[in-house]
Amino acid sequence: MTTMSRSAYLALIILLHSFVLIGQVKLPRIISDGAILQRDTELKIWGWASAGETVELTLHKKKFKTQADASGHWTIKLPKQPAGGPVEMTIKGKNQITLKNIMFGDVWFCSGQSNMVHQMNIHDVTYAKDIAEANYPEIRQFLVPTRTNLQSAEADLQGGSWQEAIGENVRPFSAVAYFFAKKLHEKYHVPIGLINASVGGTPIEAWTSEEGLKDFTEVIKTIQQNKDTAFVNAVDRTAAAAAYKPKQETDLGLLANPKWYEVTYQPKGWRSINIPGYWEDQGLKDLNGVVWYRKEIDVPVAMTGKIAKVFLGRIVDADVLYINGKQVGNTTYQYPQRRYSVPADVLKPGKNIFVIKVTNQAGKGGFVPDKSYYLFTDKDTIDLKGYWQYKVGDVFAPRPPVPPSIALQNQPTALYNAMVAPLTQYTIKGILWYQGESNAGRPEEYARLLPALITDWRNKWKQPNTPFIYAQLPGFMEYNYLPSESNWAKLRESQRKALSVPNTAMTVNIDLGEWNDIHPDNKKDVGERMALAALKIAYQENIVYSGPIYKEATNEGNQITISFNHTGSGLITNDGETLREFAIAGADKKFVWANAKIEGDKVIVWHDTISNPVYVRYAWADNPDVNLYNKEGLPASPFSTEK
Predict the structure, then answer these.
(1) What does the alpha-carbon distance between residue 620 and residue 296 come to, in Å, rounded to a whole number?
(2) Helix H segments across 470-523?
(3) If 384 and its partner were Cys, which of 80, 316, 334, 373 is the partner (CB 3.0–4.6 Å)?
């Protein structure tokens, strides 16, 4: 065979191989082994093949046939299937695919930002027992890989698989979604499928399609601009060129010889500081930079020779933990809880040197209060709170503003195109949504954006009345002792107003937050409150599923009477104390704390110095101290009577 003929032969082989590949029947990623398909409704099974190729699906020994269209797309509609399984499903064209362990049950699309992302694994201390006892093969999650597309909607996902909620395999499950599913599964004993498409720190616009945002003129301009790849690349190049890039190491702790974390280093000039606490509150005024913390910890023999753990609460912003000169932990941003594993050969009996390097770029740096700070093994615990020694390693000079880059996952339609659009042919029971933190800077706009998303997704799924259940933001940040303005309160108000969209439900979580953590640990109650809402709007159970929701206000002399929906068996204060967090104002909108009392299913609000009250607010703060509930134990939603 000549060289030329060999090349031609190889080209022919490649060409023939490509024809085979084109003829391969292919399914979308979501329809794969272990999938849960929606019960009790006509189902669409779809995929790709060569143009005109005959495709045959076999289920329960019944055969369904179709033919791929000119573009190679095919669809088969299956009749309603009752809950159950597992079964096998075969799809056959020029090749054959056999899907195993398929179940029929209820499928919920779960989306939002970090509080929907947060896996059981992140909360494995609080939910250690739940993880250890997880044995629910009929609760399954499909975790959609994070991906963006600024150009157009994609036809398929780029990865992902169905996983069963059994033992350690439950760790990657969204904690909120898992507890939601567990509640439903235990009640109805049907398979529950969770499609988890969520990304931390993302705005609602990123999850909405271009059609869904058509009424937002400025957003549409951004979408069109972002479709210009040259524009996006130019912006990113400009931002990268202007970004701060230190020419050399400036941290004294790393320049020293020996370095400040090494066991041979002899500390000089270190001062006392308390952990937990921010260094700005302890004498280091307006310092952005690097602060090193150091302490000798006495460790008993019983704690050595085995794996230990260190909990360092939360640290603003980044940290590196060294024990006896060895790095055992590192986190690069402020939000994760610091939970580090210490190898068995690191700790030694007696004196151990703990060194923590903390880097902060802006605001208060240091250790967040009211968190866990300790070293522990299976039987022993050492408290790490108290006085440490500190020394400043670096001070960051004020930096000129840097032109922003285009953060892809925050751009309108970017996540919809890549993480939602490929799933809209997959029939679902309903939608769970936990998002809003990233839109808190523009809270009034959210009153339009959330209904737009709901309508958009229902249109895309072609399920116009799909139950849509969303989580209202919990309390977060410092408590205010005087009535004040709050973007988080305004965002919650926009969420409350979205209840005007039919077949929606909002879970009120104002009592489930943590002042010092945007990711509160209590995910179980959020998930179970969402399940309670689902029982009502998706399963039509006759139950009380919501706390009191503001209905209307009536002015009577110097009092305003507030009426509510969802009062259940009656209004109460959950602590037996006087109602609090009600504020009242006249036409000038100068709010003061009000007197408030429950009368039947209403609340009467007044203030002795305001003879003509006009407005009332309840729980209008970042992190209010609430106590208005119904007797079913569900908290009232924050609200304002302002239009």
Answers:
(1) 45
(2) 487-497
(3) 373
Residue written as token pair 């002792």: 481
Look at the chain and report how many structural domains it folds into: 3
Q: What is the pLDDT of residue 16?
A: 37
- Looking at residue 174, the DSSP 8-state letter turns out to be B
User: Are 223 and 413 a contacting pair, CB within 8 Å?
Assistant: yes
Flag whether 223 is in a domain.
yes
Helices (H), 296-384: none
Query: Partners of 316 in the beta sheet?
Result: 366
Q: Which of 500, 524, 546 corresponds to the end of one domain?
A: 546
CA 78: distance to chain centroid?
A: 34
318 with 432, same domain? no
Give the model's pLDDT for residue 577. 97
- The pLDDT averaged over each successive group of 10 residues in the chain (643 residues) is 46 41 84 98 97 97 97 97 97 97 98 97 94 98 98 97 97 98 98 98 98 97 96 89 76 97 97 97 95 98 97 97 98 94 97 98 95 95 98 92 89 98 98 98 98 98 97 96 97 98 98 96 98 98 98 96 98 97 97 98 97 97 98 98 93
Q: Could you write out the DSSP letters of every residue in 583-623?
A: EEE-TT---EE-EEEEETTEEEEE-TT-SS--EEEES-SSS
DSSP of 243-302? S---SS---HHHHSSS-TTSTT----S-EEEEESEEGGGGT-TT--EEEEEEEEEEE-GG
Q: Please give the Cα distance from 616 to 527 (Å, whole number).
A: 30
Q: 368, 395, 422 — which closes off a domain?
A: 395
Same domain, 165 and 263: no
What pLDDT does residue 17 have? 43
Tokens (6 digits) for 421 = 């659009």
**Nearest Cα residue to 228 out of 337, 151, 114:** 151
Which range marks the domain in which residue 334 is found?
A: 252-395
User: Do 205 and 285 share a domain, yes or no?
Assistant: no
Q: Are residues 126 and 148 in the same domain?
A: yes
- Tell me, what CATH number does 315's domain have? 2.60.120.260
Cα 639 from Cα 493, distance rounded (Å): 6
CB 472 within 8 A of CB 510: yes
**Assigned token pair, 262:** 């090494």
Residue 181 phi/psi, 5-degree rounding, is -65, -40
Packed helices 175-188 and 524-537: angle between N→C axes, nearest 10 degrees: 50
**154 alpha carbon, distance to own chain's centre:** 23
* DSSP calls for 446-460: HHHHHHHHHHHHHHH
Among candidate residues 440, 437, 441, 428, the one with its CA nearest the CA of residue 469: 428
